[in-house]
TrEMBL record:
CDD domains: MobA. Residues 1-137 form the MobA-like NTP transferase domain. The keyword Cytoplasm applies. SUPFAM superfamilies: Nucleotide-diphospho-sugar transferases. GO terms for molecular function: nucleotidyltransferase activity. Keywords: Cytoplasm, GTP-binding, Magnesium, Metal-binding, Molybdenum cofactor biosynthesis, Nucleotide-binding, Nucleotidyltransferase, Transferase. This is Molybdenum cofactor guanylyltransferase.
């Protein structure tokens, strides 16, 4: 995109604030923002795993069931209803969960296995280990079907042209 996507304007606000307002429409109690607008990566350059690793470092193990929802900043067409559905089913199944054909958004129960995996991977030199697909497979994640006619909501914007298509559908 040639710039930090989080700062692109949508509905007269930066994209990261737009996505935050989307999360505020849900029942999530805490939101941790990874990146320049929130927590900088402890170990940068490892893709989404860097941000997840940093966020997990800020969530103490309190002995209760905890989970995270990873939501990319560049997916402005996703709805709070789709996020709540994902989290509700993830909580019910007690497993990492995402929609068919889309690794994000991603529901992850916080487990010792998740913490250990992210800690190990951020120290890897091989970029193949930074993949969310590998993380999901390692944790034996599962998928749920995308509701009818909702595939377009999972579109993300990685180019100016994709951004314009997203804006047309907001």
């Amino acid at each position: 995109m040639g710039c930090n996507k989080a700062h692109i304007a949508i509905n007269d606000q930066p994209l990261w604030q737009y996505m935050l307002s989307l999360l505020n429409e849900t029942h999530f109690r805490e939101v941790i923002i990874s990146g320049p607008e929130g927590l900088p990566d402890i170990i940068p350059g490892k893709g989404p795993i860097s941000g997840l690793h940093t966020c997990l470092s800020k969530i103490p193990d309190n002995g209760h069931t905890q989970a995270v929802l990873i939501l990319p900043v560049d997916m402005p067409l996703i709805t709070s209803e789709l996020l709540v559905q994902l989290v509700d089913q993830g909580q019910s199944l007690k497993t990492p969960l995402h929609y068919d054909n889309y690794q994000l958004p991603l529901y992850l129960p916080i487990t010792e296995a998740l913490r250990n995996y992210t800690e190990a991977v951020v120290h890897e030199a091989d970029k193949r280990h930074y993949s969310l697909r590998r993380l999901i497979a390692h944790l034996h994640g599962s998928t749920i079907p995308v509701p009818d006619d909702q595939d377009w909501r999972f579109r993300n914007a990685n180019t100016p042209d994709e951004w314009q298509h997203c804006l047309a559908d907001v």
